[in-house]
Write the structure tokens for this entry.
Amino acid sequence: MCASGGVGGGVCAPDPQVAGAAGDARAGAAAGTGEGEGGVSVVIPKAEFLENLKDFERIVQETIEEKEERTLEIIREALEMAECPVLACSWGKDSFLMLHLVRKVRPDIPVVFTNTGVEFPETYRFRDKILAEENINYTELKPETTFWKIVDEYGYPSRSRYMEVKANKNGVPMCCALLKDEPAEKYYKEIGADLLFVGLTYDEGRLRRTKIIESGPLYYIKSKGWMKCLPIAYWSESDVFGYHWKHNLPLNDGYKHSPRIGCMPCTGHIGWEKQMAKANFKMYRKVTKDMGRPILEEWL
């Protein structure tokens, strides 16, 4: 049983029979690791990739209702294989939709938020609101360093994580690695997690789309020792917003001024200048000065 709650979290005591069954099931899952997951991605034969592509193109055209049912089935299948599942939540639109759907199947799913310390203020308010209204099995993690200390040592992240000069061995910007990945993975290992739910979708980028076509929404990461499940892998951004509106799900207010919710001083995505200037002009001035960049003309 996997117990969680509070900053300290809990522990898992795997049932040998369940663990064995999960191991057998993992053998049938894609054995590759995704980008930045500490291993080499599986290169599947062209014919198999094209067949997967046909299935993918059919699935992404499904209605929201069909995608919801498919997602719930993916979640059930993943949970049947796991003894100690955990859900990573950033309090953005995707992870909150995933949280909503996973809790339909497993209401007490352990939920983990890795607080980088530089999230949007709206994210913290949204977190507090949901935790006050819902009985969530919740753990919040904090890194051992800060964004600004990392910037002092490694500089700001570039727009392309895969061309990042100062990154870890998997091409992940050091701020992401030290503020999010390392604290989270340390915790998952401490509690013996064997299944990680992550709210990634196919339209977040070409590499993400290709990985989903190759490996599907559930695969085993041998280097980590756990399965990774992407329940909403086949959802588009419009699907996600559409589900929120149709079912009246609460939404992070940060989306009122920003298309992307994450670390507020992040420079690793297209359009960061306008987003940061609108959200926190003082921070925007500091970052542009640090980087030796001119202030956008519209903000002069």
Residues 21-256 form a domain with the Rossmann fold fold (CATH 3.40.50.620). Strands lie at 85-88, 111-114, 138-141, 195-197, 218-221, 226-229.
